[in-house]
Records
---
Amino acid sequence: MKKGLFYMFHIKNLRYKDILYIDELKIEEKQVTCIIGQSGGGKTTLLKMLNHMLSPDQGEIVYKGRSLFEWNPIALRREVVMLSQQPVMFEGNIRENLNFGRILSEKEPLDDEKLKEALKFVCLQKKLEDDVEQLSGGEKQRLALARIFLMDPEVFLLDEPTSALDKGTEEKIMDAFIRDARKKEKTVIMVTHSDTIPKTYADKVITIK
Amino acid sequence: MKQEVINIEFWRLSAAYLFVLILILLVKKREIKREKLIVLSTARMTIQLVLVGYILMYIFKNPSPWIVLLVLCFMESFAVYNIFKQLHKPLSKKLKLVIVLSMVIGSLVSLLYFNLIVIHFKPWYEPQYFIPIAGMFIGNSMIGITLGMKEMIENFATQKNLIEGALMLGAKPDAATKPIVNSAFDSAILPTINNMVGMGIVFLPGMMTGQILAGTSPLVAIEYQIVILIGIAGSVGISSFLSLQFGYKTFFNDRFQFIPQNEKEK
């Protein structure tokens, strides 16, 4: 273990149905970890376990030195926020959707200035009043990313955050996102099918078979 | 102006069935193939009503708290059975328990309040009052719970992503399901509320019509009708609210993970 590094997650002997078997896995804090592997290999399942949306059948997941079962699930999910693969849109306009993550997790909503910055951050040229129903798949994905960015959690779990984006946009957004995460010393755990993201940004790459 | 109620003679009652024949002829002509259903429904309606007539006759002549309570239990059980049947889907044990308790508590609270305080009849089990009023409260609560549950269960299945998406962001289960639970409550009580709007203008409600036909002054009849309608609204509101408020919680485990009902069976 390198000096100053601390294990954010420590997984031991994890079993889940016939989807996931992990003997041991350590994920370090304040680093960018990419999870790669074939489709259907259980990558999303693993992220959902870290966010405690699913419980393992066997084995243990330790977060900050305490088993996930010792954490209050809601408090944990507010620290370890997950972005789902299918961007979730709630009824309403872009402003409401950007703030909804903070509202659901009982944080103060942000003013328009901050929300506009977040839109710029994910290269989304839209008005805050626009209805989310009008957005394309890629635009929804970026809006969902901006939403969890605004929640400012300790750990970001990202499930294929750029799957609906073209290479150029992917690069721009990931550059900005990772730079910001490193500056604020966030932990990022990301499932991706992209070839370039792990090479460019990852401190560590985990392959799930 | 009180007058004797006209008793319909037997042959005149039989003559009413002429209209059933007309209905059968009409569907036959249109080839709608509903003859069997019409015959069956008419037969069931006749037999059930004749039976109920004699049973009520007996109960009214021999008023007993035990018989009234027995009838009440029967009505509650039938209502619960009907809700389970109407929902089609496999229901978890917990959800079934929630439905039973909501049905019973919602209708009983309203029944006790309206019987003992508002209408204030004595003795409390006077079957002539107790049974029809209980029937109306329980029947309407049954419809309310069914409509609300149906909407909630369907939306939980189709909008699983939305609920999980909210949980992943750290939402509490009640916040994650709020839009769905609210719209389900809306579906449960809207028919009752809308019913009140058209009352007396679009139609005269069955109970009031019956009382007027039986010679009661329309002013007394509307008194009863107002009381009963408010009672029904209360009963539907309380039972639907309880069933949804405690029902949505059965879709989450103690780790606040969302478990769609039918996946539990696997």
---
Amino acid sequence: MKLLYFGRLAEIAGTRGGEVALPAHVTTVAAARDWIGETQPELAEALGSERVRALADDEFVGNDRSLAGVAELAFLPPVSGG
Amino acid sequence: MILVTADPIDPAALLAGFSAEHPQAGAIVSFVGQVRGGEATALHLDHHPRFTAKVIEQIASDARARFAIADCLVVHRHGDLLPGEPIVVVAAASDHRRAAFEAVDYLLDRLKTEAPLWKREQRASGAQWIEARPSDLADRARWEAARAD
């Protein structure tokens, strides 16, 4: 699956993301947030925040959303356009 | 036209093109947002290569449905900008001015609070990521209230 980070998250992660092989137990958005936080502790606080929204294949999804069939999971911090 | 681009934008040229596309319109209202001067010495604007334009398309589509406008234009920069550079151009064409004024106001309120764009201001003291302000959210909420009336 492709993981993507934007804005402040990309800066904290030091990457905009890329292809990752999720462990078998990571089957939901919530589990992905936890797993990323464990493997990249610098992201744990941000990904633990509800203000950072999850986008699965261009659709905003809640933490209970299954990752089955999801090709791209993006994490979006609060926006500031215009 | 909806466009999210790393290239410098030319508001006058965009507006001339938009006006030429709508010779029947009685009103064209436009807004140009510039990178504010002051403490910030530069601005970086991050975007999602596909989803940002998709969200802006939806916001524009909502504006076309909600107001009596013939069309609207949104061109937004991403990448690195300097104070004084245009960051966003929004325009609407309509038969009568009120609808175009309201559509532009609405588009901007939603762009500021919903478009997946992330600003990082560079200051002498360091860099800082910006979030929509409470006043931006309050501006956005006005349209919900108006709809509920």
---
Amino acid sequence: MKFVYYGTMNNVIEMRGVKKSFGRVHALVGLDLQLAQGGVHGLLGPNGAGKSTAIRVLLGMLRADAGEVKILGVDPWSAPAQARSRLAYVPGDVALWPNLSGGETLDILARMHGGENLSKRKSLIEAFELDPTRRSRTYSKGNRQKVALVSAFSATAELLILDEPTSGLDPLMEAVFKQCVADARRDGQTVLLSSHILSEVEQLCDRVSIVRAGQVVDTGSLADLRGHAATIVTATVTHVPRGLEDVPGVQRVDMDGRHLQISTTAVDSVMEVLVTHGIETLAVAPPTLEDLFLHYYSNATKAVSA
Amino acid sequence: MNAMRGTRLMLGLVLRRERIHATAWYGLAGLVLVGVAAGIAATYPTEAARQQLAASVNSSGQELFLIGPIFSASLGGIGLWRMTGVAALVVSLASIFTVMRNTRATEESGTTELLSAARIGRGAPLAAAMVVAAVGSAFCGVIVGIGFIAIGGSPFGSLLAGAQVISFGLLAATIAALTGQMLRTARAGTGIAVAVVGGFYLLRGAADAHGGGISWVSPFEWIAAIRPFAEDNALPLLPVLVLVTALSGAGLFIAGRRDFGAGLMHDRLGPAHASNALRGPVTLALKISRPTIVSWSLGALLVAFLIGAVSAVVDKQAPLKLSGIEGGQGLITVVLYLVPIIAAVCGMQTTLRLRGEVTSGRAEAVLSRPVDRGRWGFAYAISGALAGFIVLFTFGVGLGLARPSEMLTLIVASVAKAPAVWFFVAVTALLLCALPRAAGGIAYALLAAFVSLELLVEFRIVPPQVLYASPFALAPQLPDGPLNAQWAILVLAGIAALIMAASRVLRQMDIR
């Protein structure tokens, strides 16, 4: 029964024009998000952009005010609970029952889920160095996070939804987490990874959606998105060119004598100009995810609370 | 002293946090107490009527057990008598909640940790919380003192009545100070503190019911020994003050020495696997609520046994009849009328844990899995209904242990009150769906409103027929009163309607 979808759409997640307001706070204002099957999809955005609200709508905890929501082919709000047996979720802020041990918590969560790979769970407990006999009350934030991660990665699921899953993990455990995500991708699971840690997204994600103020402002592969942000061309030329600002794609030109710094989305056209002016030194820096992030957020409208 | 450094800073913070909360608790408590006293004073305006009341109360073992004797038949004297029981309860709760909210509760939530890096001594949060509780108690005492003068009590007697109220508040605050330091969770600390106060109250009741002077076993007897409007003796305030000082000293001593987050006992390791019984949201809720259910039941068993033991002596004396209720006579009947109120509080408290599941984020862990929303949403209501039932049952068993020949009758009579308890559990469940944020406050306010119907009837402000609106009055009044079968069925039908409404709302609500 794995990988069989209800309905006709093949997307694992399908959100179109989703709106959600809490009183006067507009958390989602027409959010569009599509995830094809397989791969790791990043949901990137600052605190309060609406990432967690979108995820709670996907889980059927919140009802969208408007728009279309499908997860694994079904509407999460009206679908029977059984539909959720095909996904696993790690919340951003893991809270556990204080007087239950970690092992008890994993057991009850697995029984509620209805399907678990026991040997995988055992190896995950070892990899994350989790002591399942300790009561949740005595767990640190990172240890609570590990319980949620072990529970999600050992569950039989087609879709993993991870909401800022590495907050509280130390670098060693972060490496274990990254390995888990890589394994999940290899096994054909689809992963939605919400994060504001750029390096994590850059390393793990095939595609990224950037969320700002309750909307997805851009989506695509990292290469696609890079194309939308400016590459920095730094050069020293023998003759100073004129009219560089008017070359299509050029966003900004800084000149200091014969030293130039050009921000452009069209490196080719800039090169054509520079070549005819005698290039002495040349450096081309592709935009980092950070540049990309700043590109979308530098003139961000006021953020809304998640 | 190093541990006390920053107490003044902490005091500013606690005062800011408690600006509305504590003011409302202590202020309303004071007003309620004055209202209760004024009510009875207005009901018995003549000296002759009051003398008659005093004579009947002082010869009634039930009244002596539940409230205590009337020492003076003056306006102030009977007002004081009627108010004392409520005062001991309400002011004590106000102090326990205030101290716990600002000590162990903030330690659990982590806000204390935020401050521990600042120049705040380990004892400072406790010291600040106790100061606020003391100021609140004093505020309540002043309202009561002024109120009694207004009712017509002597100024010195009124002053001492206020001092009694302050004593209840201080005593409870210092008990909570100690239990809050000794136990790891605010819930457990509050529970034990309430149990200790309840124990003091019952010991005082037992001593009064047996008659023959003061046994000095319970500090509540010391407070009663002041006897305002009769002997006006301020001396018993001294031992109260000594006890308060000793308890707060012990609390501060522990606070200055223990580890952050620690209690007297360390956490033991738990099992690496859950028992097979733990399968879904309902069994999980039952497991989570088990310690609460067990401690409430043990309390019910003990209290019932004590009351049962006293009742043998008491029932030889003049009978007590509840106004407006057809329920027969005797102390047992009176407590059987009161016990569903206690069981309802236990059931409602358990039901309200659902809100904590949502605010803590634990709800996400359950609802992201293929769990039916209804099963999750009613898991704690089911636990609450069961908790209330078990409290009623163990209470019946406790009474029966003291009077073995009537064991079965007493258990049935106690358990028969279950519909009244379930009604309030169902109301709470509906409120949790319809108005989740305000559910706790509204639910307890509703319970208080139904309980105070009794007082309104007692003071003849409303006719006794109004009690037909109260599930407590509609429940079977066994063993001596009517079975009220048709009314009990009506209450059960009401419960079914509430649950249906709740499940409708539950399916439409955002979980947040």
